[in-house]
Amino acid sequence: METPAADLTDSLAAAGFFVLGGFSPGYGDPIPALKSGKHPRSLLLVGSTGQTLWPLLTSSPEFSDEKPDPLDRYTKRILSAIAIANDLEALFPFEGPPFHPFQQWALACGGFSQSPMGVLAHQRYGPWTGFRAALLSELVVEVAVASKVDGPCETCRDKPCISACPVSALSIENGYDVPKCREHLVSMKNASCWSGCLARRACPIGEDHRQDPANARFHMDCFTDISSTGQ
């Protein structure tokens, strides 16, 4: 069994990313074949938090060139190069349709649970990690062993995220009402949600990895722009 190369870990960290987990795909799993035609034997899920990625993103050429989707373009440029340097193949959550089932892959890695907010919550990072890429290998990599640890939401009794939403856009019965959330943001330009989703901020897991107000505003702007175009 191969161990992840130190160069891979270091290269990811230097660019604001890290391996969230991994698993060894079965032949029935919804994962495309490698360019060689072989079935991948390892999938490594790469993520980030605002604390790790935001400072590097804001100093990147993608962030200052005034072109659309700076986060996606930065992610693809950096992680494509890292994948090539480590004999891996990269898949991205923003490429499609068809889009890759990143949430399904994350659940297969272990350590995640479905939250009422629609996002997955991680047992260490809570709702503050984003999925940036999946790295595929034809080798069995040590980290590609699914975690036995469950995510935090299954045992969370109080569900503070639900009661924290100012417009009741979350519920156990109906999940996350995206149009209601967006309508509140669009109609209330001074809403406190613009500086960070109050539901996410109410989660007691991963508090050290919360987005700062500028980072939160960037993602809220992306969210309202994407929603308004129907994408």
Folded structure, characterized:
The protein has nine helices and eight strands. With 231 residues, the chain is of the alpha+beta class. It is 36% helix and 16% strand. The strands form three sheets. Strands 1-2-6-3 form a four-stranded antiparallel beta sheet, with helices on both faces. Strand 4 and strand 5 (120-122) form a beta hairpin. The protein has helices at residues 6-14, 50-58, 61-64, 70-85, 102-109, 160-164, 178-187, 198-202, 213-229, and strands at residues 18-23, 42-49, 89-91, 112-114, 120-122, 129-137, 170-171, 175-176. The N and C termini lie far apart (41 Å).
Order of helices and strands: HEEHHHEHEEEHEEHHH
Shape: globular
Helicity, as a percent range:
25-40%
Poorly predicted runs: 227-231
SS summary, helix count: 9
Q: Strand portion, in percent? A: 15-25%
Query: What structural class do the secondary elements suggest?
Result: alpha+beta
Strands of the biggest beta sheet: in what spatial order? 1-2-6-3
Mean of pLDDT: 91
Distance between the termini: 41 Å
Largest sheet: 4 strands, antiparallel
- What is the radius of gyration computed over CA atoms, rounded to a whole number of angstroms? 18 Å
Number of strands: 8
